[in-house]
């Protein structure tokens, strides 16, 4: 079956990248079909339908949000959400053609922000593939299921993601890193702490007012921020990052250090590893937006569970 290429048609950077990708695939004699997305969630339904029809390689021209939507399409959710999702085709492969704001998952796989051309070459002549973990999330009172590939943030992180999404076209000329920092400063100005209870593998990690909660699978998040320097997408563990009791000035300081992982030296920042993470808020007005791979997925309370080696990715 030919490869399916899914393009995030709503993103200018992906639209600009697509002619180069198409030219290279045509020149290499690769058989492929393509689909340009029209709305949020479109990539998920197209990927799922393609895999059911027999396609076994899906490439994504876009950023982390589109990549995450396509990854969700590799799975079907069970009626009983307590059961883990089922892979449609365990042998199917995901190919990354990064053309987004942050491209954090791709950056984490290679340890640097590699060129689009190098990722095109990987699709044309696959050298290797790895089995990566994915996050199975359940938000909105644990009743709404989703798949997350790279990382999810709540608190100031979730508010920041909402502001990045709302940024107008004038912001598109700036780097992903600058856009995330600018949004974070705005989110910080209106943020208030609220009580959050966090358990990891059934153990209470924290029950206190929170600034930020992050659940990391990949090494980078938020446009190159090293949320957890020890996070690995193939270790069967989630890295849970919590920050509690930071003043606004201290948050600004840590934002400047998070790109290199320096924030973990602050005693108010804690990292816990585990396989099942539950993050609970207790009042309607305290519910926090959940950002997952740049997409807003819903509100707390939420549970994340790692699915080990659930997805093959070309590297």
Polypeptide structure, described:
- Helix 1 runs parallel beside helix 5 (about 115-125) and helix 6 crosses helix 7 (about 175-190).
- The model has no long low-confidence stretch (mean pLDDT about 90).
- Strands 1, 2, 3, 6, 7, 8, 10, 11, 15 and 18 form a ten-stranded mixed beta sheet that branches.
- The chain has two domains: about 5-135, Probable inorganic polyphosphate/atp-NAD kinase, domain 1 (Rossmann fold, 3-Layer(aba) Sandwich), CATH 3.40.50.10330; about 135-310, Tumour Suppressor Smad4 (Sandwich).
- The protein has helices at about 10-25, 40-55, 65-75, 105-110, 115-125, 155-165, 175-190, 250-255; strands spanning about 5, 30-35, 55-60, 75, 85, 95-100, 130-140, 145-150, 150-155, 195-200, 205-210, 210-215, 240-245, 270-275, 275-280, 290, 295-300, 300-315.
- It is α+β, with helices and mostly antiparallel strands and about 325 residues long.
- Helices cover about 30% and strands about 35% of the residues.
**How many strands appear in the DSSP assignment?**
18
Strand portion: 25-35%
Specify the CATH architecture of the largest domain.
Sandwich
Q: Describe the oligomeric state of these chains in a short phrase.
A: single chain
CATH fold naming of the largest domain? Tumour Suppressor Smad4
Strand count, sense and barrel status of the largest sheet are: 10 strands, mixed
Q: Radius of gyration in whole Å, from Cα? A: 19 Å
Overall shape: it is globular
Average per-residue pLDDT, rounded, comes to: 91
Listing every helix as H and every strand as E from the N terminus to the C terminus, the arrangement reads: EHEHEHEEEHHEEEHHEEEEHEEEEE
Structurally, the number of domains stands at 2
Distance between the termini: 21 Å
CATH class of the largest domain: Mainly Beta
Q: In which range does the helix fraction lie?
A: 25-40%
Secondary-structure class: alpha+beta
Number of helical elements: 8
Low-confidence stretches: none
